[in-house]
Amino acid sequence: MGRATTGEDLQDNKDTAFTWEVKANNAAYHQQFREKGFLCWRRRKYQTNGIHTAKYSIFSFLPLNLYEQFHRVSNLYFLLIVILQSIPEISTLPWITLFIPLLCLLLIRATRDLVDDIGRHRSDRIINNRPCQMLIGKSFKWRKWKDLCVGDVVCLTRDSIVPADLLLLASTEPSSLCYVETADIDGETSLKFRQALAVTHYELISAKTMAAFNGTVICEDPNSRMHQFVGSLEWKSKTYALDIGNLLLRGSKIRNTDACYGLVIYAGFDTKIMKNCGDIHLKRTKIDLFMNKLVVLIFLSTVVVSLLLSLGFWLQGREMKDKHHYVSISHGKGLFVESILIFWAFFILLSVMVPMAMFIISEFIYLGNSAFINWDLQMYYEPHDVPAKARSTSLNDYLGQVQYVFSDKTGTLTQNVMSFKKCCIGGRVYGPDNEDGTCPKENPYQWNEFADGKLSFFNEELLGIVRNKRDKVVQEFWRLLAICHTVMVQEKDNQLLYQAASPDEEALVTAARNFGYVFLSRTQNSITLVELGEERVYEVLALMDFNSDRKRMSVLVRTPEGSICLYTKGADTVIFERLYKRGVMEANTEKILSAFTEQTLRTLCLAYKEVEEHTYQQWQPRHEAASVQLQDRARALQQVYSDMEQGLQLLGVTAIEDKLQDGVPDTISSLKKGNMKVWVLTGDKQETAVNIGFACQLLTDNMLILEARDVNIILDSYGEQNKMVQTPKRSLRFQLQNEVAMVISGEFLDHLLVSLRKEPRAVIQSEVEDKAWQEMSAIRRFSMMWWSLGTSLSTRGSKGKRKQESPEARRERAFVELASRCQAVICCRVTPKQKALIVALVKKYQKAVTLAIGDGANDVNMIKTADIGVGLAGQEGMQAVQNSDYALGQFCFLQRLLLVHGRWSYLRICKFLRYFFYKTVASLVGQIWFAFYSGFSAQPLYEGWFLALFNLLYSTVPVLYIGLFEQDVSDAQSLKMPELYMAGQKNELFNYWVFSKAIAQGLFTSLVTFFLSMWIIRDTAGPNSLGDYQSFAVVVALSSLLSITIEVMLVVKYWTLLFLGTVLFSLGSYFILTYATQSLWAYRLVPKTFPFLYVLHNVLSKAPFLLVVLLNIAVNTLPILALRIFRHVLKKPRFREEVEAAPSEVSEEPLPQLRRESRIRRSSYAFSHREGYGNLITQGTSLRRPRGDNSDTNVPSGFLPDEVEEALPSTPREPRKISFLVSRRPLLRSRAPSQDSQVPSTLSSASTLDRAAPGPSGNQPALPGRLLAGRGRLSQDSSSSFAEAEAPALVRPAQPSGQSSGHRGPAHSQEPAPHQVATGTQTQESLSEQPMETESVQREPSPMEWLPVSSEGQLSPPLREQPPLFPEGQPSPYTGQAANRRPDPKDKGAVPFTLSNKPGPT
């Protein structure tokens, strides 16, 4: 427990070096490299793509499983006893009687491990045999995933899963974009984009060119950092920088991309997702570890007792020799040797103090309780047909001792479904008409031909206002939602299909669509809407994208009437401070925002303003200058945007519900009442995670929320005080006077976990302090927090240990202590590796039982690291379930799993162990007392068959009933009283004290049974005497058996027919089998084996014998029963005492409370949009050209393999068919373009140096199958005539590069700067890294910073001065080629295709 690092952590210990060299299409090169493995074995440096997560193989199963099993001290103990039993001189029983039970125990556990591992082998086989297309020779052929190697080129089609970490080379999308879904990695269903380098986008246009590609990728060694990648591509004597935006990660799914091509960089276990999966750990429960200690304790006690008894034999032998010298005593081997043999004989005789039957029965108990979990219908999730499943059968009691619950957010707490719930327009709230928030049975949006029928929100009054166009504010509200976004649109099955960067945006645009404001299409500088049946085209003058600092997004457009409007949406904290007035409507809106906040809805404020023409003309040059600025471009643009976004008029507020899974708030509330700490570990951004924290009642409004800066100040203060002499009074201890929560980020954890993770500091980015924090006095904030939080941190562990700790370890310890005092902890933007390290941190310093629950592959490492791993079978795949110990269908079932099954399992196993130790001592310690009367000769007291069958039949079945069916309260009461769960957390039901009481009660029972019987029979004679050895042995055995049977009847809470049946079965088996072993027939058969002849019959037939038995039972039972009744009367319910005593823990001197520095109203803003999509739109790189225009087709249809081409619905080069909407909207076709509609285009906000390489004009509207004939306003091509718009083929000639019809503003050269194409950063500034689960974080420094530098500190010549891809003035070899030539589908790359491979428009 002291060391939390794993084997994979050590892989990141090394400084990240750029020694990973990948040569394309050169498998022989990679196979020659070897690196040091175990001992002298050298393994391949570049692994294949096959994975093996199973623990055992055919050859390693037997030795490895035996090695693991004999890690249990009990198994080693039993093996020692078997060896001793095989020595005839000291054996008391045949060795086979102990060897067979030991073999059965090992077989049971080995079978269980084998079944679990077979499941892993089956899962590995399914994954390794998935098909993919690999470039072999000059064509792509189907192969299995396991056949891939580093350097192979792979072809992936739509909906394919990425088999390895690939460098994206090209795709069929414009500018070689590739859209991926990472639901199987981080649980997010929103799309993320990756983009190929410009050079590979231009050059790799056929299978032949792919086969001839011989570039070399030099990058960092395989590591676990999911959202970081640094490397370079060397090709044709040039070097091109690479970052995470060029990489497709294993486990991602290709979306909205017909085909893409990638180079395998990392394969198999070297991939980033596998680096984050962690190793399989051997999980042992607290009781299991405690039993190891007890076995050692009992072993030592047995050795001591055997030594004392053998010493007694030696002394008695000396005394006999000295006092009775006249008696001939023969010790053939000498008295000392005989004493040694007597020692081993006693040791074997007392070895039953650790009964093997207890371990065998416990396996059946674990198996039975696991079956109860599998059979529980209340944990069956019917919608997905997912029952609860106990995948591990040895951790059930651990479920009753959980202290920390680590949960993922997306897909675990939430459904990852956004729904438009309410809105506020002009200070008035419009909620759903139905209480359940559903639409009427008859679709109210049938009047709208574009309505998708999926909107559950319906308000008849609002719909009437919209359709009657009575309120301008309402019109502008919906118009803003249809304009201000970065959603892409496509047509599929004659329906508009929106592809959004976040589910928030999709929900808003879909709501506007159903209310009649339909987002129809967009181009680089225009956006087309259908407003209540009227088509309107807005010219986009500037798109001011969202980012985490701005917390807002704006679009500056020119309306068809010629006016200029700014539409803005964002957080209330930034919108309200930019309003031109704060009137009654704004005040009402703030109150409504507070109400939405209490309902835990995600809110966005909407505002707009009309911009004067002269104001825009003054602002536009500043915007243009900022967009081409080389230094601090982002800050300059942000300032320009902020200047425009002033004097806004508030329109209203949208309220979106991020749907929680059913029962999440109640489950978390019950877990907290059960004294469990709930930590949420998510890759989402802070606002979204905090909003969900309030929604699931993990956070409350009266909580003081500590952020990273607050925690740093507290930890710094702790470090300063630690430098002083530590005394008990100075030991830092937090006594939190009010509820405190902690919200920290992955960046903070990177600094904190350095000593645990040993990541290279060069990779850990320095945290940028918040400006507001710098402006505030740190001393003032610290003093306020200090007063609110109490005094200081107490660290656990000995002083000597703390003195040896490094400063990082002391800081980690202080952080864990502080976090453990918080009522809730939320960690945002954390990677899968960081999730596991947080769990390891708590295990290391708190020694607590941890449970991790998640549903995605990014949670696998956390699930493996925690003591208990729970996987949810959701939409994100089965990786979490396959690596978990327990599988559930919903998070709410965790409440029943822990509070019912976990508590019951812990209660049952504790009662079982306590009673088993009691009955063993009560019945078998009589062997020790008998030694004093048998001359310490190690003669057994009981009949041999009684010893053999005692733990097998006579006393076992009632104990098995306790382990399977015992309940102190019902399941309903367990859920109503979560406080009962705390007994397991405190180890109250089985610890050294409980064990000692069981041993003491067993000793008392054995003393009473043996000596009371002995005193009664002393000096008796005659036919009714108990003086003979056999009668005495049977009386003691029967008294012990009946006493422990009555004890089990008193211990069980409820007597059922099944329980009474087990008691009758045990007693009946004793009488029947004893009569059989003491029969005349058995005696005649083998006299030495069955020496007790009719002894039990004689005892039961004589009244004195029965009276002795009854007296023994009464003396054993009545005092214990009276003591329990007395204690029960005096004892109060434990949890009531704690509640009553809680106020006394507060300091008598009242401490001043911390005044919250946040506003009175908490903002419920949470928007999961990603920065970067705005640049793709304004540059035009993400917009498809009409199908007749092939300028952006990177890999034509004929380039795809036959199988892929047949699978695709259509080729990008087919003539566009007239949309079905043409016939449905004849009025729009007949409308001629007006002068107002001929809006000239202008420079977009992304006319910067980092825009895409030259291409055709971006003024072609990107209408997926909806380019309506006669839509002159839509085309934005002022040079196109109305007759051209009526052309049936709907194919327009491509405009020359660099020309744009209706171009406004100063002309800019379309030639890219030389360094842009050479370094492959065509649009890389828009490719922010994609972190886990939702938002992108701030982009890491330029990849060029990681490349080798010259001695002068400048970049090496290949990076500083590189010629453009094509010399200035020389046209691209791909331009001007025939656009209507269709390649032969059978052509596998023998002839290069001449289709254009230009990038997207600029």
Automatic annotation (TrEMBL):
The chain crosses the membrane at residues 93-111, 294-315, 335-361, 912-932, 944-964, 992-1017, 1029-1050, 1057-1083, 1103-1126. The active site is at 408 (4-aspartylphosphate intermediate). One of its GO terms (molecular function) is magnesium ion binding. InterPro entries: ATPase_P-typ_cyto_dom_N, ATPase_P-typ_P_site, ATPase_P-typ_TM_dom_sf, ATPase_P-typ_transduc_dom_A_sf, HAD-like_sf, HAD_sf, P-type_ATPase_IV, P-type_ATPase_N. Residues 24-97 form the P-type ATPase N-terminal domain. Pfam families: Cation_ATPase, PhoLip_ATPase_C, PhoLip_ATPase_N. Mg(2+) binds at residues 408, 410, 855, 859. Residues 1219-1234, 1261-1289 have a biased composition (Low complexity). It is an enzyme of class 7 (translocase). Its EC number is 7.6.2.1. GO terms for biological process: binding of sperm to zona pellucida; establishment of localization in cell; Golgi organization; phospholipid translocation. Residues 1177-1402 are annotated as: Disordered. CDD domains: P-type_ATPase_APLT_Dnf-like (cd02073). It is a multi-pass membrane protein. Keywords: ATP-binding, Cytoplasmic vesicle, Endoplasmic reticulum, Lipid transport, Magnesium, Membrane, Metal-binding, Nucleotide-binding, Translocase, Transmembrane, Transmembrane helix, Transport. Its cofactor is Mg(2+). It comes from the Eukaryota. Residues 1235-1248, 1318-1335 have a biased composition (Polar residues). GO terms for cellular component: acrosomal membrane; endoplasmic reticulum membrane; plasma membrane; trans-Golgi network. It catalyses: ATP + H2O + phospholipidSide 1 = ADP + phosphate + phospholipidSide 2; a 1,2-diacyl-sn-glycero-3-phospho-L-serine(out) + ATP + H2O = a 1,2-diacyl-sn-glycero-3-phospho-L-serine(in) + ADP + phosphate + H(+). Residues 881-1131 form the P-type ATPase C-terminal domain. Its main location: membrane. PANTHER family: PHOSPHOLIPID-TRANSPORTING ATPASE IK (PTHR24092:SF78), PROBABLE PHOSPHOLIPID-TRANSPORTING ATPASE (PTHR24092). P4-ATPase flippase which catalyzes the hydrolysis of ATP coupled to the transport of aminophospholipids from the outer to the inner leaflet of various membranes and ensures the maintenance of asymmetric distribution of phospholipids. Phospholipid translocation also seems to be implicated in vesicle formation and in uptake of lipid signaling molecules. May be responsible for the maintenance of asymmetric distribution of phosphatidylserine (PS) in spermatozoa membranes. Involved in acrosome reactions and binding of spermatozoa to zona pellucida. Belongs to the cation transport ATPase (P-type) (TC 3.A.3) family. Type IV subfamily. This is Phospholipid-transporting ATPase. It comes from Chinchilla lanigera (Long-tailed chinchilla). The gene is ATP8B3.
